[in-house]
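REVIEWER CHECKLIST
Item 1: Sequence provided? yes
Item 2: Single chain? yes
Item 3: Sequence as submitted:
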Amino acid sequence: MKIGITNLKGGVGKSTITQNLAVCFAHLGFKTVIVDTDTNQNSLAWFAARDKNLPTVNVVGVTESDALSKSVENLHQDYDILLIDGTPNPIPTYFILNEFSEHKKVHEGISSQIESSFDVPVLNTRINSRVAYTEVSIDGQGVFEYSDQKAKAEMVSLMQEALEIAKELQFME
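Item 4: Structure as written out by the authors:
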């Protein structure tokens, strides 16, 4: 299965979501790789900091757009889960609300506004603004491996939702 975590804007949490989803999949026994397409290569730095005793999540940096599709196809043959961190290009497309807060008035009704404005479904999982996401990235970990149970539950929920969609679309059995 291939999953793209993308946005044209920097600093919106693409790498954080990608890394944490990858850790969840790896803990479930999926052979997992991240293709880091951002020029800042945050996922590669995260990979360098990751303890070798934790479940393996490989990371490959590909910043040349011409090489991206070829690299993705080659890597997909060897991995169960391939996550693309960066370049906007996902089909089919789903929105995920990141750094969400149900207490912020501006976030009220955002899902229905997005779906009606863009005709793109919004995932049920919400990723809240939590310190845990920053703390784990420094050590090359994911919240699945950390003490914040709420953050862990968010990532597990996101992973389960991605797997359900993949099965519905017959991307995997």
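Item 5: Key structural point noted by reviewer: The mean pLDDT is 88.
Item 6: Recommendation: ____
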